[in-house]
Amino acid sequence: MQEITGEINSSYTPYGEFKNHIGEVVTVKGTIHNIRDMSDFAFIILRTARELIQCVYSPEFSDFRLSEDIVEQACAKVSAKVVQSQTRDGSERYELQIHNIELLSKPADIPPVVISKKQVVCDLNVLLDNRPVTLRNPKERAIFKIQEGIQRGFRDYLISKNFTEIHSPKINFAGAEGGTNVFKLDYFGKTVYLAQSPQLYKQALVPVYERVFEIAPVFRAEHHDTSRHLNEYISMDFEMGFIDGFEDIMNMETGALKYIMNLLKTEYAPEVELLKVDIPEITSIPTIKFKDAKALCVKKLKNITDMKDFEPEEEAFLGKWAKQQYNSDFLFVTHYLSKKRPFYTMDDPEDPEVTLSFDLLFRGIEITSGGQRIHDYNQQVEKMKKSGMNPEEFETYLMLHKYGAPPHGGLGLGLERLTMHLLGFKNVRYATMFPRDINRVTP
Questions:
Q1: Do 193 and 182 meet the contact criterion of CB atoms below 8 Å apart?
Q2: Mean pLDDT for the stretch of residues 380-390
């Protein structure tokens, strides 16, 4: 009788450990990624969770013989002898001399897209239509290992700063940011909405934990079909209490980004090298007020019509300006107009027309919105009424203010946009595992 212990007896040997097994026979499980048959011998590339391992077949190595069942995309258990060799440049390498291949499964058909090359060559729609297959390509899957590293760095850094991780509901009684860009649902006869943001719940938990964060999907019913918009994306949010000003939030994000970039360079070096990622160096991040940034744009660009927000070309210009002036890939733009910020954003006491808020631009694209929140009950009710909202509909949210809340603030950081620009992609869908936009709900 088999005893279930909760431990897995793995026969997988990572490539980096082969140096400890030279001359030994090891067992590796994986998928046959590529077969290069040279008539009297063959190279069989085995794809494991994070690596491509070169195995060599020759009748000289054992009594095992290749058969027609050994095909690309078959899953197998390979027993092989570890042999040390050198590359052309003299660096150390290892290969496996195959002693036996045990097939674990065999594909029923040939993949619709070639994934055994260095990269998948097809247009974006074909890439996404065949996502369960195209993600198997090493470069494609490396994108989302990098994305894992970003989330991991965000989580690890905030936990080190005494943040508590939360999970807020995604079916809500109202939109967190107002407006019409919410998805309505029929919820047992009631109209509810998919979450635009965890904002209201983050704030509610500040008096509980003081510092909270969440990494989760959010939903925006925006009819945009652009290279930078999605209708479902992953938002990395945090909220922190007892702040002295919204600068505390910007400082926290700067620290998190430094930690994330360092983690990518150290723990995700194989993916960074494979994708040739340009990891930014962060010492500090420059800031500029919205009105001053807008003045720069008006001076340098033509046909600026929206004086209340930035157009994409303005963000791109500001990204270049920050690089030239401060050698920074990042730029904080602060003090956005009150009319363009959500109802919970605190107005600047010195100038009520603007808010104690900010966006973070990364290489010319906005990846973060944040700021200080209103914590006074009367002040929040007044701003709601001024925005045309009915405070009675937000009774549970206003419990935060009614029963005492510390000065607090936070931000939301778009994971896919950060990944997109970090990897130099022109479309956010390349940085989204299974995109959801106005045209796509599959696969």
A1: yes
A2: 94
Q: What are the Cα distances from residue 39, in Å, to 43, 53, 59, 64, 212? A: 11, 21, 11, 15, 61
Kindly state the average pLDDT of the residues 163-192.
88
- Residue 176 pLDDT greater than 80, yes or no: no
pTM over 0.85: yes
Which residues, 6 or more positions from 123, have their beta carbon under 8 angstroms from its beta carbon? none
- pLDDT band of residue 93 (cuts 50, 70, 90) is confident
User: How high is the pLDDT of residue 89?
Assistant: 80
Phi-psi region of 90 (alpha: psi -120 to 50; beta: other; left: phi over 0): left
Q: Which sign does the torsion angle of CA 332, 336, 342, 344 carry?
A: positive
User: What are the pLDDT digits (tens) for 56-89?
Assistant: 999 999 999 999 999 999 999 999 999 988 777 8
Does the pLDDT of residue 11 top 60, yes or no?
no
State the pLDDT confidence band at 254, using cuts at 50, 70 and 90: very high
SS (H, E, C) the chain: CCCCCCCCCCCCCCHHHHHHCCCCEEEEEEEEEEEEECCCCEEEEEECCCCEEEEEECCCCCCCCCCCCCCCCCEEEEEEEEEEEECCCCCEEEEEEEEEEEEEECCCCCCCCCCCCCCCCCCHHHHHHCHHHHCCCHHHHHHHHHHHHHHHHHHHHHHHCCCEECCCCCEECCCCCCCCCCCEEEECCEEEEECCCCHHHHHHHHHHHCEEEEEEEEECCCCCCCCCCCCEEEEEEEEEECCCCCHHHHHHHHHHHHHHHHHHHHHCHHHHHHHCCCCCCCCCCCEEEHHHHHHHHHHHCCCCCCCCCCCHHHHHHHHHHHHHHHCCCEEEEECCEHHHCCCCECEECCEEEEECEEEEEECCEEEEEEEEECCCHHHHHHHHHHCCCCHHHHHHHHHHHHCCCCCEEEEEEEHHHHHHHHCCCCCHHHHCCCCCCCCCCCC
Do residues 408 and 240 touch, judged by C-beta distance below 8 A?
yes
Q: Checking DSSP bridges between strand 190-194 and strand 330-334, what pairing results, if any?
A: unpaired
The string of pLDDT tens digits covering residues 217-239 is 999 999 988 999 999 999 999 99
